[in-house]
Fold this sequence. Notes:
Layout: H1 6-18, H2 21-42, E1 46-50, H3 52-68, H4 72-96, H5 108-135, H6 145-154, H7 163-195, H8 197-205, H9 207-220, E2 226-230, E3 235-237, E4 240-242, E5 247-251, H10 252-256, H11 259-262, H12 277-281, H13 301-318, E6 319-323, E7 331-334, E8 336-339, E9 344-349
Antiparallel strand pairs: 1-9, 2-5, 3-4, 6-9, 7-8
Helix pairs in contact: 1-6, 2-3, 2-13, 3-4, 3-7, 4-5, 5-7, 6-7, 7-9, 7-13, 8-9, 9-13
Cofactor: heme
GO molecular function, one term: iron ion binding
Protein name: Secologanin synthase
Amino acid sequence: MAPEFFMDKIKVCNALYMQGMIQLIEDATAPLLEAWENILDSAGGSTEIVVDDYLRNMSADVIARACFGSSFAKGEEIFCMLRKLQKAISQQDAFVGLSALWKHLPTKSNREIRNLVEKVRLLILELAKANVNENGAENAATHNGLLRAIVNGAHGAGHGGTAEDFIVGNCKTIYFAGHETTAVTAIWCLMLLAKHPEWQERARIEALELTMVIQETLRLYPPASLMMREALTDIKIGDLDVPRGTIVQVTRSMLHLDKEVWGPDAEEFRPGRFANGVAGACKPAHLYTPFGLGHRTCIGQNLAMTELKLVLARLLSRFAFSPSPTYRHAPVFRLTIEPGFGMPLVAKKL
């Protein structure tokens, strides 16, 4: 993400959050509710549902409508391409690490990645062009305002590179961060609630309890598992000397499962630890980092939490969930931490 565009996006995202986001999220959730109700009606009221793709499609629809002025149907091709690109990059990194040299070799996987990158680039530029033609320069404050802000920022000074690179890079970041991470969190949240029916009932009744459940899910399964920072000066971390310019990579799970910070039950699902907020759950509080820290805190944090609360509340008001005997617990890293074999859950109409 272009750093000089970061603060502009914060302003736009905050504006979007204040302008009808609740209704937008409810509109995007309606097809999901209808689909699951139809499945359960045809199965006599209870059956197994593999929830992954339903939640991804719903979350993709939210971010497309909110930021790019299109429904999921219009952006579906981009989302599918980005999903394929995510898997291809993750599989490559799993085998060869982050070697810059390997990524330039003429391998089959590299050709596939380059082909997907180019297809995504062309689709995003087509969407940006259509947005400009349809909406005119005066519509920066509407639900397609973020794309408008990106296009306007691409023609400003100081970001370096080409305007097209600027547009594509920022749109890819928002598409990915805006729907994949939220969907994965919702998936893990439903799994944990299915395994802990007492918390499922509490979350169904009280909004504060649901917020605690979401916070605990983000602690146990942080969707963006890695956090990277560049050392701006020579520093010392413990016994390690870190020269200026070094990229330091932190695994969030190491912070979130540290028993010295969270106590002996750090690996257990215990939402009650957040009853008094993050500051009451761990000390120091900055070791809880599902949305990052400092100037690089996720710009979509408010939107993500609002979406998770609304979607989960709607689902819990209509359905009860229990574990499926076909579920295999195998979290895998594919840029996000997600279920390796999908998330089948037994759903029942209330």
